[in-house]
Design a protein that fits this description.
The protein has 160 residues and is mainly α. The chain has two domains: 80 residues, Arc Repressor Mutant, subunit A (Orthogonal Bundle), CATH 1.10.10; 47 residues, no CATH class. 51% of the residues lie in helices and 9% in strands. The protein contains seven helices and two strands, in the order ααααββααα. A two-stranded antiparallel ribbon has the order 1-2. A hairpin with a 5-residue loop joins strand 1 and strand 2. Helix 2 packs across helix 4. The mean pLDDT is 82.
Length: 160
């Protein structure tokens, strides 16, 4: 077996992924994972995305009691987590009464895909670890203006 460098004791491994039609899954924007959300707020956001689906106008009627049971949290924890998601602009909510029935909370999951894409497209423009860390830190603090100043600096640096 001259001309080969493979030893008889070496074993090659072939890894094959089974590709099936993806079903029953939920996509979350990377931005949500990079925000300093509490564990409960992150879980609640994932739940909202799951039950409303990805399409425009997805909706789900689910009681607060059922959400609390599914997430193993109290009603006050649910309220705090929802307010945290509102603070970050991921959802909005309002109390409504339908046909004179009990008051309900209507939660709207906001479409943040455009913002998500912009954040990570800009992140790819940055070269150093320090620039990326500063950029994400500003994004997490909600200081988009400072984050964009870093991007502008890097883009201008490369064009001069």
């Amino acid at each position: 077996m001259s001309g080969t460098s493979t030893s008889q004791n070496q074993q090659d491994t072939l890894i094959i992924a089974e590709n099936a039609e993806p079903r029953f899954f939920t996509m979350l924007p990377n931005l949500v994972d990079d925000l300093p959300l509490s564990t409960v707020a992150f879980r609640l956001y994932a739940h909202y995305k799951r039950v409303t689906g990805e399409g425009d106008g997805g909706a789900c009627w689910e009681s607060s009691e059922r959400i609390c049971k599914r997430l193993c949290i109290s009603k006050s924890t649910l309220t705090r987590a929802r307010k945290e998601l509102e603070k970050w602009g991921l959802v909005s909510s309002e109390k409504r009464s339908f046909h004179g029935e009990f008051p309900s909370v209507v939660v709207k999951v906001k479409n943040i895909w455009t913002a998500n894409n912009a954040v990570y497209e800009n992140l790819n423009l940055l070269d150093s670890k320090e620039e990326k860390k500063a950029y994400l830190s500003y994004i997490q603090e909600g200081d988009v203006q400072s984050a964009m100043a870093i991007v502008d600096y890097v883009v201008n640096r490369e064009t001069t």
